[in-house]
């Protein structure tokens, strides 16, 4: 008798996985290696930014009071007492009708409270004249206007991007405390699989899931150990899975999770004593996606069908990895879009359509990326998002508003309602 599996909702499946995620710990690394890591400490302003009042322009630092009453017909003349380039400080305070020539980023000299841009002046033998009055404080970049000392600027659990790196560098974080990165294991199962460089022979196909998963991990900056391909043999596959689990923090297998005679992952989980979190999800593709856990390590049994494999990774594996690293926004961002063409199939299960979104004069439009069955490989290559059609809905028409999940985005969200 074939086992009858009971599908659970996608949101419930995601929750079950996330509930099993164990944090991977922290480490201190050099700032130059920190891009793509998750902050394990908040960024606190160690000092004001800017750390001193400075000029935002190339011009002259003056006392605003000295410019009072200036007009085009009665220009006011200033004597220039010196020059301050960025990185230098003025030697003395300025007095009445005195000015420092000052460059963008240079510290304001004592007594000066306004900056006149070079373009607003006419040069004279001893300085310049100007034709309008300046307010005290005009054209000054104030100490602390960007960040105040002691302020918490970014919270722990945030993914470090180039802007975060700039902030860390500003405060002198030569080293930064981040989450460790887990090491993934990858195993492609299937007696039919050939290596990428092999010529096709009858009945066989090339392994595309292995390289795809490696790239999905690369996109996240996650290192992996590849266990290559394994033929559908129970003993051999069990040995490889066991070894992989010993050597890595979690394991991704592809294929062998359905009810076929050579689908051995369910038997392997049983042999190893792994707890199966689910083996059927009310989604398409990827309904047979199975996730199990053993000794705190997750085993992602992704389907062999390429589109199902891809989708299973994005929906379950990716947020779990990010959560292992303490990322507080581990889910793909969601947007609404106008459907660009009819999609007439009914959706007994939640459907994730590989699609391509673009911003057009009509707003964001998402178009299915061609052949969209679970075994499709071409639409994964063309797509940049997943259209989500909820279960229980009928066909959709061009012009309908749909939700999309953005692939490959650095920006995450804290919650999903799938
Ligand atoms: N009687 C039933 N049959 C099937 C069911 C079901 O519920 N009852 N589910 C179907 C669904 S849905 C899917 S999806 C597949 C899932 O199959 P498996 O995860 O067990 O994967 P395999 O059987 O190993 O392979 C499926 C398919 O994918 C190809 N494949 C496998 N690995 C790779 C790879 N690394 N690169 C490229 N392509 C790969 C494989 O050759 C098969 O064509 O089961 C349905 N059947
Ligand atoms: O798991 Mo299958 O991908 O739903 O077609
Ligand atoms: Mg199968």
How much helix is in the residues? Answer: 10-25%
Strand element count? 24
Low-confidence stretches: none
Instruction: Please state the structural category.
Output: alpha/beta
Largest sheet: 6 strands, mixed
Mean pLDDT: 97
CATH architect. name of the largest domain: 3-Layer(aba) Sandwich
Return the CATH class of the largest domain.
Alpha Beta
CATH topology (level 3) name of the largest domain? Molybdenum Cofactor Biosythetic Enzyme, Chain A
SSE topology sketch:
Elements (H helix, E strand, L loop, with lengths): L9 H11 L5 E5 L12 E2 L14 E4 L13 E9 L13 E5 L11 E4 L3 E3 L3 E4 L21 E3 L7 H9 L4 E5 L4 E6 L3 E2 L10 E2 L2 H12 L3 E7 L3 H14 L2 E5 L10 H8 L2 E4 L4 E2 L5 E5 L2 E6 L3 H19 L9 E6 L10 E11 L2 E6 L9 H5 L2 E5 L11 E6 L12
Parallel strand pairs: 4-5, 11-14, 11-15, 12-13, 15-19, 17-21, 20-22
Antiparallel strand pairs: 1-10, 2-9, 3-5, 3-6, 4-8, 7-8, 16-18, 18-19, 20-24, 21-22, 21-23, 23-24
The protein binds ligand LQZAQKY5, molybdate ion and magnesium ion.
Pathway: Cofactor biosynthesis; molybdopterin biosynthesis
Function: Catalyzes the insertion of molybdate into adenylated molybdopterin with the concomitant release of AMP.
Family: Belongs to the MoeA family.
Explain what this protein looks like in three dimensions.
By secondary structure, this protein is of the alpha/beta class. It folds into 4 domains: 10-24 and 181-324, 3-Layer(aba) Sandwich (Molybdenum Cofactor Biosythetic Enzyme, Chain A); 29-48 and 157-179, Molybdopterin biosynthesis moea protein, domain 2 (Alpha-Beta Complex), CATH 3.90.105.10; 59-130, Molybdopterin biosynthesis moea protein, domain 3 (Molybdopterin biosynthesis moeA protein, domain 3), CATH 2.170.190.11; 334-406, Beta Barrel (Beta-clip). Helices cover 19% and strands 28% of the residues. The chain has 7 helices and 24 strands. The protein has helices at 10-20, 162-170, 209-220, 234-247, 265-272, 306-324, 378-382; strands at residues 26-30, 43-44, 59-62, 76-84, 98-102, 114-117, 121-123, 127-130, 152-154, 175-179, 184-189, 193-194, 205-206, 224-230, 250-254, 275-278, 283-284, 290-294, 297-302, 334-339, 350-360, 363-368, 385-389, 401-406. It has a 6-stranded mixed β-sheet with strand order 6-3-5-4-8-7, with no helix packed on it. The chain has a 6-stranded mixed β-sheet with strand order 14-11-15-19-18-16, with helices on both faces. The chain is elongated, with a radius of gyration of 30 Å. Its cofactor is Mg(2+). Keywords: Magnesium, Metal-binding, Molybdenum, Molybdenum cofactor biosynthesis, Transferase. Catalyzes the insertion of molybdate into adenylated molybdopterin with the concomitant release of AMP. Pathway: Cofactor biosynthesis; molybdopterin biosynthesis.
């Amino acid at each position: 008798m074939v086992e009858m599996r009971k599908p659970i909702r996608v949101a419930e499946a995601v929750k079950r996985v996330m509930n099993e995620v164990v944090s991977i710990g922290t480490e201190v690394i050099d700032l130059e290696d920190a891009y793509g890591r998750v902050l394990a400490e908040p960024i606190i302003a160690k000092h004001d930014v800017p750390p001193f009042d400075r000029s935002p322009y190339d011009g002259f630092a003056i006392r605003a009071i000295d410019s009072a009453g200036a007009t085009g017909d009665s220009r006011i003349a200033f004597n220039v007492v010196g020059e301050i380039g960025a990185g230098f400080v003025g030697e003395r305070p300025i007095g009445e009708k005195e000015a420092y020539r000052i460059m963008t980023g240079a510290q304001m000299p004592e007594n000066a409270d306004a900056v006149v841009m070079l373009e607003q002046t006419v040069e004279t033998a001893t300085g310049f004249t100007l034709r309008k009055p300046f307010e005290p404080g005009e054209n000054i970049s104030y100490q602390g206007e960007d960040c105040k000392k002691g302020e918490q600027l970014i919270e722990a659990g945030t993914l470090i991007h180039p802007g975060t790196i700039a902030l860390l560098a500003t405060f002198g974080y030569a080293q930064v405390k981040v989450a460790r990165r887990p090491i993934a294991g990858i195993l492609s199962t299937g007696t039919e699989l050939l290596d990428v460089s092999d010529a096709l022979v009858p009945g066989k196909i090339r392994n595309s899931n292995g390289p795809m998963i490696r790239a999905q991990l690369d996109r996240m900056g996650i290192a992996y150990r590849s266990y290559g391909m394994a033929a559908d043999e129970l003993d051999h596959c069990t040995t490889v899975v066991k070894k992989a689990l010993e050597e890595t923090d979690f394991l991704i297998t592809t294929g062998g999770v359905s009810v076929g005679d050579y689908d051995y992952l369910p038997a392997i989980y049983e042999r190893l004593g792994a707890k199966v979190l689910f083996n059927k999800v009310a989604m398409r593709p990827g309904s047979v996606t199975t996730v199990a856990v053993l000794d705190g390590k997750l085993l992602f049994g992704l389907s062999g069908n390429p589109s199902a494999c891809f989708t299973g990774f994005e929906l379950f594996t990716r947020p779990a990895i990010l959560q292992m690293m303490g990322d507080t926004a581990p889910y793909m961002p969601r947007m609404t879009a106008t459907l660009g063409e009819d999609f007439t199939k009914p959706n007994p299960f939640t459907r994730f359509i590989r699609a391509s979104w673009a911003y057009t004069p009509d707003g964001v439009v998402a178009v299915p990326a061609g052949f969209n069955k679970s075994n499709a490989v071409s639409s994964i290559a063309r797509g940049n998002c997943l259209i989500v059609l909820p279960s229980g809905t009928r066909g959709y028409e061009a012009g309908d508003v749909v939700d999309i999940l953005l692939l490959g985005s650095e920006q995450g969200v804290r919650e999903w309602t799938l």
